[in-house]
Amino acid sequence: MKRRQFLRYASLFGASTLVPIGTQGWLARSFAENTSRKNLVVILLRGGMDGLNVVVPYNDPNYYEARPLIAIPATGEGRVLDLDGVFGLHPALVDLMPLWKNQTLGFVHNCGYRNNTRSHFAAQDYLENGTPGVKSTTDGWLNRLLKELPEGGVTQALSFTRTTPHILAGLNSVVNQPLGKGSNRRLPVDRPVIASAFDQLYQGTDALSTAYSEGIEAREIVLQELQAEMKESAQGAPSPKGFKADAGKIARLIRGKAQTQIAFLSFGGWDTHVNQGSSQGQLAKHLKNLGEGLATLVQELGSDYQNTMILVMSEFGRTVAENGNGGTDHGQGNVVWVLGGNLKGGQVDGKWRGLDSSQLYQGRDLAVTTDFRDAIAPILTSHLQLHPSQLARVFPDYQFQKELALFKSTS
Asked: How far apart are CA 388 and CA 148, in angstroms?
């Protein structure tokens, strides 16, 4: 059977099955118990999140002049949560304030990549492949990162999506495990008759048989962990909704037998052209769910949070000025969120230029003063211990520009 035919039959396993890609993907992996293993969780907010209403320059009068309807007020009801006297956090993210205060949360403003496209599809591709402007890159930077890490078990890398996203596309094996109510649904391959037929068909030591065995092993590990989590919550704690519930599952897969080291998930709904809202409204609802989920993830990770970095990004920011529909349009620079137990947080990093029209890109957007790869690089070198030569393979043909204060104390 040819590999392409195998991938077609693999749909019987569903989206939560490992489908190894390329010669490296066929290798069985063994992962010894390692309590100091460093982990990375990447969250992509698809649609272009409005970073100016997340980390708010509330002392800049230009902000309120540009956004008479949707600005987050500096005083009164629904006011910003002060961070450092210059910036404030959207009030819907109140659950994250303890992390800011204990310095395990920080932000990088004016972040992105220069000469950015305003197309969602192109911008997401560039953010995921890690080579902005190069459309021919077929693999993603997280998959290239996986190649540089010591090999782990079959669930070392998990994408909480139904199909493999571009950021994890490539030669190295990845498990897709969708979140939500259907995350542990039974599939055709779980039926004894079908399972027995496949077991007999792929009982050899050839590449396809090895791939099948790895897929079944990965599925069983993930399902056992998720089912155990559901049983525990039924013993007294009600199941929370949305990302908050999913965050507990992700933490369990990192902490438990799955030993997931690299996790990826994405959320949509950030393209706020119309009725974006201020302290309340469309954006605020999304931020509240995201903030609660992140706080839950940190709590559920427990001591493993010390060995985990969480990176939250979006493909581009929004225009500084609101539009005529009470929303914002596609922009440039944005804010990147970084959370981690070994972070010098409690600060807004990056080169902030203010919102005077002379400092804006094309007179309308936040200019990019920190390339997104400069925000990611120290996580890979200081946290995941990559050598500069390895970093160059993750982000090829890029000359790194600056060291960010958020990461100077990481080890």
From this structure: 11
